[in-house]
Amino acid sequence: MPAGQRTLRAVLAYDGTDFAGWQRQAGRRTVQQVVEEALSRLLGHPVRVTAAGRTDAGVHARAQVIHWQTARPFPAERLVPALRGLLPLDVAAVAAGEAPAGFHARYAARRKTYVYHLWRAPVADPLHRRWQWHLPLALDVAAMAEAARRLEGRHDFAAFKAAGSPVRNTRRTLYRCRLEEHGPLLRIVLEADGFLMHMARGIVGTLVEIGRGRWPAGHVDMLLATGRRQLAGPTAPAHGLVLWRVEYDDWVAEGPPWPGAPPGLSRP
Questions:
Q1: Is residue 56 annotated as a catalytic residue, yes or no?
Q2: Would you say the CATH fold of 111-254 matches that of 6-98?
Q3: If pLDDT is split at 50, 70 and 90, which confidence band does 1 have?
């Protein structure tokens, strides 16, 4: 790093509905684009940020972590209030500060937690429809929970990644894959050392098919053994998924609680 450069980091929360994902894309509105534009205006020089994970179009975040470099002596404690007037209403910086030497938002992350939200009531919830998949079905939650338990551990998750993904190493450790019921709201909590492209949504789509009775819980054992994406369930819709938490050796990034959310939603 050049002399005088500092590494800063921040936690972002955003509604992914009106974004074409995290990563910059020519001619499309992305989270990275609006965040970099805001920081560049604030610091007076071009800023490029790196995120803990590249969320897909429509995916939300409570605790996306970013880092960037600057030589400006801008006080870190003023970043959050200063960005409030520069970011659009669907993005917020909820925490910011100096990062330790060598910090990297993506490569230093030890664990990431995603939470998927299914709303099973006959009528969709209009207040929360932007972050819930409305699925008015009677699901066998016990079978889904058993399949989820079988997915925990160190496995090859090739069967759940996006078709055509160039990633060669598809082994990941899924520390937690658990279901939580809050009335008609069913949450699927996935905590891992890393996620393949569409992996979380592929797991959710497969669990839903098991809940509908298409396959027994043990079907996931075959998927882990064969890695055949065509034998797994469909990719669940993006809008039900939220990047919830990112853990580092020195720090845990968590977003703000959601007002009006059912008990237990602030920390899975």
A1: yes
A2: yes
A3: low
Name, in order, each residue with C-beta under 8 angstroms of 185's C-beta and a sequence gap of 6 or more.
Answer: 117, 118, 119, 120, 132, 262
Between CA 103 and CA 131 the distance in angstroms is: 31
Specify whether the CB–CB gap between 50 and 104 falls below 8 A: yes
**pLDDT exceeds cutoff 50 at 263:** no
Please count the residues of the chain.
Answer: 268
Closest to 199 measured CA to CA, from 143, 191, 217: 191
Annotated active-site residue in 18, 56, 193, 250:
56
Q: How far apart are CA 38 and CA 90, in angstroms?
A: 13
CA torsion 180→89→253→235, rounded to 10°? 50
**Which fold, 6-98?**
Alpha-Beta Plaits (3.30.70)
Residue 264: pLDDT band (50, 70, 90) is very low
Domain 111-254: which topology?
Answer: Alpha-Beta Plaits (3.30.70)
**pLDDT level of residue 4 (50, 70, 90 thresholds):** confident
Specify which residues 51 forms β-bridges with: 66
